[in-house]
Amino acid sequence: MHIEQSCRAADWFLPEGSREPGHVRPRHWRSWLLCAPPYDRHPTPRMAFLAYENNDIMGFVAAMHDSIFAGYRADIAGLYVLPRYRRRGIGGMLLVRMARWLQEDGINRVTADCYLQDSTRGFFDRMGGVIIASVSDETDPAAKITYGFANLRELAARA
User: Fold this and answer.
1) Could you give the domains of the chain?
2) Using alpha carbons only, what angle is made at residue 3 by residues 114 and 31, rounded to the nearest 5 degrees?
3) Which helix (H) or strand (E) holds 131?
4) How far is CA 70 from CA 66, 111, 130, 133, 150, in A?
5) CA-CA distances (angstroms) from residue 1 to 10, 39, 99?
6) Which of 141, 52, 6, 46 is nearest to 14 (CA)?
7) Based on C-alpha coordinates, what's the Rg of the chain?
8) pLDDT of 8-47, one tens digit each?
9) In angstroms, rounded to a whole number, what is the distance separating the alpha carbons of residues 59 and 16?
């Protein structure tokens, strides 16, 4: 959900051709998933799931077996649903599917970052996330908070 705002806030470090969410190139995600350069510094299992209908991609979720927070062994690297498909349960379905994949690998806790000023951050609250880290400067448009999901079994059990 935070990819759209990430692209705007992180404009200075994203490659020229991938600054807008609609222009994120599949080759960039392919490299990330395969731990290929430039993402090969810390190879770890990674997975992405797409929500689609016919030939329309409605959204995606991507995660990796890694987190900088103690006790959490995975991180949601990206979760995005196109605006026209929001409020249909697609983001929740993607997050539940990712929770099931992580559970299959023996992971019970995951983190997800979100911009403090992101209008979609209530999604993580509704899905059971708890804020485990935040910044003190609430005026910074790039200020992030981190949600923790400490019980993936519960999340994975959602229908």
Assistant:
1) 3-156 (3.40.630.30)
2) 115
3) strand 130-133
4) 10, 10, 15, 12, 12
5) 15, 22, 16
6) 6
7) 15
8) 444 433 345 444 444 445 566 677 677 777 767 777 888 8
9) 22
